[in-house]
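User: Please predict the structure of the protein below. I'd like the answer in C-alpha cell form so I can feed it into my own downstream comparison script.

Assistant: Understood. Taking the following sequence of 142 residues as input:
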Amino acid sequence: MWQHEFVHRTDIPVEAIWPVLADVARWAEVDHNIERIEISAPPAVGVPFKLKPKGGPVLSFVIGDFVAPTTYSDICRMPLARMKTLHVLEPGPQTTMRVRIEISGPLAWFWGWAVGRKHAAGLPAQTDCILAAARSGARQRA
C-alpha cells in the first residue's frame, strides 16, 4: 500500500468548509488544477463522477464516504490498484483538516510513484483553495 497524509489546522469552522468540500460539481471553480467535473446526481455514497485534471486524462471516481459535515472520500480505480482520497474535518478550537491518500492493490507502488506523489504534492494548494472559498462563503453568509 502507498499512502500519504496531509494535515492542516485553520480558524475556519467545519460548517463553513463542508459546503465547499461537498459541492463536487463546483470543484473546478475552487481548485484551479481541475479543468472540469461531470457529476449527474447530488453527492452521496456511490455516486459516480468524472474529473479532468489540467494536463491529465479524464478520471472516473465514485464517492466512497459522505457524512456531513465531517467526512468525504472518493475512489478512483486504476489498473491493478485503487486510490482512495479521504477528507476528514475535525471540529475544535481550530478545525483540523486531514487528507489521506491510500493506494492499494498489486500495482500500488507504481501508481503511488506515477500519480500519488503528484496528488500529494498538490494537497497544500488544494487545501488553500478550499479554505479560501470557505472563508469567502462564510463572509457572504454573515
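That's the full C-alpha cell string. Helices lie at 14-22, 27-30, 108-121, 123-141.
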